[in-house]
C-alpha cells in the first residue's frame, strides 16, 4: 500500500490504514449478494484486519544556514518517518516493526441507526418510479436529508444481458426526504433496452447504502 508510506507521524500511517479498510467495506456494501428474487440476502463484512508496519524512524535537528552554535543547539530534535534530504541536519535513525489488529466494533447503541429500503413501481411500458424509504432506530425525523440515488451500470452489466443504454437514466439523483422519510424519482428506460435487462439501483445516506436489482419487463 503506497499511500501508507506517506506521512511524518505515526498516526498518519494508522489513519491511512483505517481509511483504506473503511473504503474496502464501503465497496463491499455496493455489491450485496442477491437471491433468486433479486432481493438483498447477504452483505460481506470485514471483521478484522491484521497489519505489520516496518518503519525507519529518523531523529533530526535542523539549524538555519548561518546560524550560530547557540542557535543550533536551541533547535529541538523531532521524530520523523520520512528520509531527511536537507543538508543542514544531523540525524540518527532506527528501524521498528509495528504490528496490530483493527477490529470492527458495533455502533454505539445511543446513535440512531439508519435503515434504507428501495422499491420500484412501474408506471408505463418504459417508465418506473423508484421509491426510497429511510428510517432510524429511534424514529427520529430525517426530513430534509438528501439521499443520493444512482444506477450502478457496472453491476447492471454483470447481472443482466449486457451494458445499459446511455439513455436509461434517473430523472433525479439527489432526493430530499419528506417528513415521513420518503422520496421518489422517475426511472426512464431506453427503447433499445432488452427485455429482462437487470438495472441495479443504489441509494446512499449518511454512509448507509442499499442496492436493488430491478428486472425490466415491458409487458408487466
What attributes does this structure have?
single chain; 220 residues; alpha+beta; Immunoglobulin-like; 2 domains; four-stranded antiparallel sheet; disordered N terminus
Structural features, described:
With 220 residues, the chain is α+β, with helices and mostly antiparallel strands. The protein folds into two domains: 10-60 and 77-103, no CATH class; 114-216, Immunoglobulins (Immunoglobulin-like, Sandwich). The chain is built from three helices and 13 strands; from the N terminus they run αβββαβββββαβββββ. The chain has helices at residues 10-29, 69-74, 153-159, and strands spanning 33-34, 40-42, 48-62, 78-80, 89-103, 114-124, 127-136, 146-151, 169-170, 174-176, 182-188, 198-205, 208-215. Strands 6-7-11-9 form a four-stranded antiparallel sheet, with no helix packed on it. It has a four-stranded antiparallel sheet with strand order 10-8-12-13. Strands 4-3-5 form a three-stranded antiparallel sheet, with no helix packed on it. Strand 1 (33-34) and strand 2 (40-42) form a beta hairpin. The protein is elongated, with a radius of gyration of 26 Å. The two termini are 49 Å apart. 14% of the residues are buried. The model is unreliable at 1-6, 69-77 and 82-90 (pLDDT under 50).
Summarize it:
The protein is an alpha+beta fold and 220 residues long. It is 15% helix and 42% strand.
Helix and strand arrangement:
Layout: H1 10-29, E1 33-34, E2 40-42, E3 48-62, H2 69-74, E4 78-80, E5 89-103, E6 114-124, E7 127-136, E8 146-151, H3 153-159, E9 169-170, E10 174-176, E11 182-188, E12 198-205, E13 208-215
Amino acid at each position: 500500500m503506497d499511500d501508507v508510506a506517506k506521512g511524518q507521524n505515526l498516526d498518519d500511517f494508522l489513519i491511512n490504514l483505517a481509511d483504506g479498510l473503511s473504503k474496502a467495506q464501503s465497496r463491499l456494501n455496493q455489491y450485496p449478494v442477491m437471491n433468486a428474487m433479486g432481493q438483498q440476502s447477504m452483505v460481506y463484512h470485514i471483521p478484522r484486519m491484521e497489519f505489520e508496519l516496518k518503519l525507519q524512524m529518523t531523529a533530526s535537528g535542523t539549524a538555519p544556514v548561518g546560524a550560530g552554535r547557540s542557535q543550533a543547539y536551541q533547535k529541538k530534535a523531532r521524530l520523523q518517518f520520512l528520509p531527511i534530504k536537507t543538508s543542514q541536519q544531523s540525524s540518527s535513525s532506527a528501524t521498528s516493526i509495528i504490528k496490530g489488529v483493527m477490529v470492527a466494533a458495533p455502533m454505539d447503541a445511543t446513535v440512531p441507526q439508519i435503515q434504507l429500503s428501495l422499491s420500484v413501481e412501474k408506471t408505463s411500458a418504459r417508465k418506473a418510479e423508484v421509491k426510497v424509504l429511510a428510517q432510524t432506530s429511534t424514529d427520529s425525523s430525517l426530513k430534509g436529508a438528501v439521499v443520493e440515488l444512482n444506477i450502478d451500470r457496472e453491476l447492471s452489466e454483470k447481472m443482466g444481458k449486457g451494458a445499459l443504454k446511455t439513455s436509461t437514466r434517473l430523472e433525479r439523483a439527489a432526493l430530499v426526504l419528506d417528513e415521513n422519510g420518503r422520496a421518489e424519482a422517475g426511472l426512464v428506460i431506453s427503447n433499445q433496452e432488452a427485455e429482462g435487462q437487470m438495472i441495479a439501483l443504489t441509494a446512499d445516506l449518511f454512509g448507509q447504502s442499499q442496492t436493488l436489482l430491478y428486472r425490466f419487463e415491458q409487458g408487466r
